[in-house]
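Running co-folding for manganese (II) ion.
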Amino acid sequence: MTPTEAAPERSAANSSLDDVVAELRAREAFVFVSHVKPDGDTLGAGLALGLALRAMGKRVNYFQQDPVPRNLRFLPDAERVARALPADLPADALWVFCDMSDSSRAGEFLPALERRNMLDIDHHLANSRFGGLNYILEDECSTGTVVLRILRALGARVTPEIATCLLTTIMTDTGAFMHSNTNAQVLRLAAEMIDAGADKELITTEIFSNKRFAAIKIVGASLERAKLEDGGRYCWSLVDDAMLAAAGADGEDTEEIVQHLRAVEGVDVAALFKAYDGEVRVSLRSNGRVNVQSAAGRLGGGGHFRASGLTYRGPLAEAIEAVHAALLAEGL
Ligand code: 5GP
Ligand code: MN
């Protein structure tokens, strides 16, 4: 870099665990922020750390633009998560962002914040390090296990409620221990959470079964329209408003569809185009040959090597073309 070039906004380095712990001890009030279209990791990680801070006598609020999805309402303290913020929130509250590579993932209702009041805890690739403090461990299976490291450094007790939140983050982000990020250490941590009182049965039932009938109907409708291209290496499908209406389903019922597309023999990359509620969102999944985080990054999205997503600003037909081109550019 020549001296005339502006230094990049992001600092590549992580804050130290000691600095993160010192900051958590120093502040009295916290707001945990989860990303739009929340999943078990963004919610479970924030709820776990929030529960631990509340046990230390701290004031804890939760900000989330979207409602808590039906299948995550069982999480301890989930009923405290809202878009509305209390009027008497202290100006020096620390806003803790869990599981997002950029603060824009919190949505448009996030108030303007000073960087020094933001803590970024994450495990995504290409995190923009938007916080005054940033603790990003890309090798962790979930943001929840990053939080577990922080809890240990804080000396916080892992209660059964916290353990349920953290096991949820692990099970969500490993696809119930099926994804390649499930290593021996992850299984040890999961066992530790069960020893600490995590309710695995509840998590399994609420997140991975108990599907609404409408959910299986929309899965069926989308799989019916699936296309296999590029010599069988690329499988994609879509869901739109009309399909949702016909099935009596909503966006929360579409989550598992892309896994089915990826599970087709010979498929390297799967894409699901979700053209409803006034936007076109795309979920990408890879078997590990093609980097779908980079592909999503070409179109303003992000995520992980094998699982990524983006919102496409334009019509569905264009999105289908653009995503295909991005995947080809990444070696599909
Ligand atoms: P999903 O397909 O389940 O919505 O997302 C898969 C992964 O990609 C998740 O890790 C999620 O956080 C990430 N992701 C999804 N959409 C976006 C997006 O618009 N921007 C970024 N940076 N990451 C995304
Ligand atoms: Mn995650």
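Result summary
Residues 1-10 have pLDDT under 50 and may be disordered.
The CA atoms of residues 239 and 274 lie 5 Å apart.
Job closed.
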